[in-house]
Design a protein that fits this description.
heterodimer, A: about 750 residues, alpha/beta, Rossmann fold, seven-stranded mixed beta sheet, two-stranded antiparallel ribbon, 33 helices, B: about 70 residues, mainly beta, SH3 type barrels, 5 strands
């Protein structure tokens, strides 16, 4: 087949345990020529790349798997691709099984399963350097003989052995099909031929035995055949009954049988130059990093550094992006013909995309630290240290990092939940992550705390405002844990109680190239996918704030005319004084810029109040009134559905002070001065607290919903997320405002 | 005696599981009757534990470790 000119391009699948350097190898083979997507119907990432050359080869990076008896969606995909169970996924022509040489025994478990599929297979014996350091010498020739497969020793992180692997992958003649070399207990063995028979029409010959064996022990795998091969389905159930009656431990027979073959093989091919008890460098590091006292302290310090970095290092770049977006807007405004289309481009599209890109520095930085933790092996240790705490709310240590990441931004937090093997833990983590106070809430907190909370100190050292800020973060965190507990207890309470089994891989020097690669990879996913939705929403919001268009009131028109008249008179005066008319116009424009701006802003505010969003604000005002919010705040909250911080520019527009940021004293003063018709202030400290709490708890972020949609592959969970968080926000604000009023704090 | 009766640094041989359905992931990771395990340490808050099995470190919770019967070497 490989010889014919019209033969389809050779397809090579990479498979291997987690932490064996499989992705590093994939990147080395395919360079930037990768396509990342999802497998249809599941949230498993599908990574395909191309190894250029003659002939080119399609390389598919299968999810990291400990076993082909799937325990997770990821492992299921790996098995299904090898077996050709996925529509549109051609069975690979060749499998490259990436193996950690320093951990041969456990890695051979997966190899033995791949051998059972009967596909031509090459073993890439990676990390031979780490094995040497650990004093393990592997006789490659002997291993080759024992497995009956080509074995290529390599150190992917140092580019060693790659050439040889590429050569083998390209060779016209494929290595011989792998074959099974282990034996299962006789009582199970004798039943298998009868099961295999039923698969004759549906599975390629070499894959039938392993398929039958998998289905014998795994319900999820058997379900696949329920409608596809009912006779096979029935036969498996009967066989299970037969084995149960014989009291044969068939569930474990496969694992026992494989290890009975593997252990002697390992004993024959591996020789040790160090005593087994000797501590490795990794063990010595662990003695400190997971130490009873030093461990948690180090973890805390690391978090502090990450927070500091994400909040402060990212700021200058974020300011730069903000400045760049403003420059771009100005440039478009000054060159475009003006009018509706320009407004749409500038206020809708550019501002909308700017709102996404602004978070990029924080996301990149966070992924840098996450990558560093993952690549060095510290991530597993953080889970080890925190597991006890997290298990109290039904989660595991693996949720710590995603939740902490969410303090910067829920989006990388939700994406980081991918590291969780247990789908339930992952879903719960995704569902509660947006309750952690992200950086987009910070401007809102800053504005309202500075404007309405007292400036005095507590206990001499803390300021009230500082305490208020801390309380916002605390409230969000506590609610996230409560929500996790409730979800675990009442929503995801079915199914087997999951257990925790996590490898603590040896520490490794981080490889910057890999970390940068992943940073870019994940950030790209964020920008492209979340960006699409933000982009659309921004346009919708712009339309809502612009239409229906109303003529400004008589009074406003007169105000504008008054300013124009004064300016004209002043210009005439200057011309009379001997100045050129053009110059005079410029001077006057500069002198009266503030007055013109004020009137223009008032007109904009008048129009916003009568726009769709202003009307919506008025419309939901009765619902928001019990929380202490007037129509302006309500309109602000509606506009903040897409992104929290939008409320500031929305309020600014409504209060007609033009473009302000959260530190501007102008908006703060305007808010303080605002009164209802009866003269009572719109904003009291109680209203401010109610609004703050609303922002702590409500899900006002399109990007979060978009990414939750992507990660859960359904609209159901984002919808539930939005409803429960918004419900919580309403409830808490209601209790606070009404309770406060009853206590006379209004 | 189960894994939980070991002291940090102590090794023992697995003799079996005191459950009919041991988690197969742990079996696949090599925690089979006959394997040698070392209890390396407890996590700072006492749970989970760090085990050494077949040359690598595996962290499991006490609730599972308590199901693994061992005999001292």
């Amino acid at each position: 087949m490989a010889d014919s000119p019209n033969a389809p391009i050779r397809r090579v699948a990479l498979i291997g345990n987690p932490n064996v350097g499989k992705t590093t190898l994939f990147n080395l083979l395919t360079g930037m020529r990768q396509k990342v997507g999802n497998y249809p119907g599941v949230t498993v990432e599908r990574k395909v790349g191309r190894l250029e050359g003659d002939p080119p080869i399609e390389v598919i990076d299968l999810p990291g798997s400990y076993s082909l008896s799937p325990k997770s969606a990821d492992e299921r995909v790996a098995y299904d691709v090898l077996m050709g169970h996925l529509p549109g996924e051609r069975i690979p022509d060749l499998v490259v099984c990436v193996v950690d040489a320093s951990n041969l025994e456990r890695n051979l478990y997966l190899v033995s399963q791949v051998m059972d599929t009967g596909l031509p297979t090459i073993v890439a014996l990676n990390m031979t350097d780490a094995a040497e350091v650990a004093g393990l010498h592997i006789d490659t020739n002997k291993l080759q003989e024992e497995l009956g497969l080509p074995v290529i020793p390599m150190v992917a992180s140092r580019n060693e052995g790659i050439g040889k692997l590429k050569y083998r992958m390209r060779q016209a003649e494929l290595p011989p099909a792998a074959e099974r070399r282990w034996d299962i207990m006789p009582v199970v063995d004798e039943g298998l031929p009868f099961l295999v028979e039923h698969l004759e029409d549906s599975v390629q010959e070499h894959g039938r035995r392993i398929e039958a064996l998998q289905c014998l022990t795994n319900d999820a795998m058997l379900d696949y055949w329920k409608d596809r091969a009912p006779s096979f389905h029935r036969a498996v159930l009967e066989e299970r009954k037969r084995l149960e009656e014989l009291k044969a431990p068939y569930q474990q027979s496969e694992i026992m049988g494989r290890y009975n073959w593997i252990s002697p093989v390992v004993a024959r091919v591996v020789s040790r130059s160090k005593a087994e008890g000797e501590l490795t460098l990794s063990d010595k590091i662990d003695a400190v990093v997971t130490h009873r006292l030093a461990g948690p302290v180090l973890f805390g310090l690391l978090l502090l550094v990450i927070f500091q970095a994400v909040f402060t290092w990212a700021t200058p770049v974020m300011d730069l992006i903000e400045g760049g977006v403003a420059l771009l807007s100005d440039a478009v405004r000054s060159t475009a013909p003006g009018g509706m289309l320009t407004d749409l481009v500038v206020d809708g599209m550019i501002a909308g995309v700017g709102n996404v890109v602004i978070f990029l520095p924080q996301i990149l930085l966070l992924f840098f630290f996450l990558g560093l933790m993952e690549d060095t092996g510290y991530m597993a240790r953080s889970a080890f240290i925190m597991d006890r705490l997290m298990s109290k709310v039904g989660l595991s240590g693996g949720s710590v990092v995603p939740l902490l990441s969410s303090f910067a931004c829920a989006i990388p937090g939700i994406m980081a939940a991918r590291t969780l093997a247990n789908p339930r833990d992952r879903l719960i983590t995704i569902m509660v992550a947006p309750l952690m106070s992200c950086s987009a809430r910070l401007p809102v907190y800053t504005l309202f705390i500075a404007a309405f909370l007292p400036t005095g100190t507590v206990l001499g050292i803390f300021t009230w405002q500082g305490v208020a800020m801390f309380s916002m973060y605390l409230l969000g965190t506590v609610m996230a844990f409560v929500a996790a507990f409730v979800l675990r207890r009442f929503v995801f309470n079915k199914g087997d109680s999951s257990f925790f089994a996590m490898e603590l891989p040896p520490y490794r020097m981080p490889r910057m190239k890999q970390i940068l690669w992943r940073m870019i990879d994940r950030s790209k996913a964020f920008v492209v996918r979340a960006g699409k939705i933000i982009f659309g929403m921004s346009i919708i919001l712009w339309v809502l704030a612009t239409f229906p268009q109303t003529e400004p009131s008589e009074a406003l028109v007169q105000q504008r005319m008054a300013v124009e008249t004064i300016m004209a008179e002043r210009a005439d005066g200057l011309v009379a004084g001997g100045m050129a008319a053009e110059e005079a116009a410029l001077v006057v424009q500069e002198q009266y810029a503030d007055e013109v701006q004020t009137v223009e802003n008032r007109i904009a505010a008048w129009q916003v109040e009568r726009s769709a969003i202003g009307r919506m604000g008025r419309f939901i005002e009765p619902v928001m009134q019990p929380l202490g919010f007037d129509w302006k705040m309500s309109a602000g909250i509606i506009s903040a559905i897409a992104a929290r911080e939008v409320i500031i520019s929305a309020l600014a527009t409504i209060y007609s002070v033009g473009d302000v940021d959260e530190d501007s004293p102008l908006l703060r003063e305007q808010l303080k001065a605002d009164t209802y018709e009866d003269g009572s202030p719109v904003y009291t400290p109680l209203v401010a607290v109610s609004l703050l709490v609303f922002f702590v708890l409500a899900l006002q972020c399109m990007s979060t919903l978009a990414i939750a949609r992507r990660e859960t592959n359904s609209w159901k969970w984002p919808a539930v997320m939005w409803l429960y968080m918004t419900g919580l926000a309403y409830l808490f604000s209601l209790i606070i405002y009404q309770g406060g009023m009853a206590l006379g704090w209004g | 005696m189960t894994i939980l009766d070991l002291k940090p640094g102590q090794k023992a041989r697995i003799t079996g599981w005191s459950t009919d359905a041991p988690p197969s992931r742990l079996l696949e990771m090599g925690m089979l009757p006959g394997s040698v395990v070392e209890l390396v340490r407890f996590a700072p808050m006492g749970d989970p534990i760090d085990l050494k099995v077949r040359g690598f470190h595996l962290s499991i919770r006490k609730s599972e470790a308590g199901l693994v019967d061992v005999a001292s070497l």
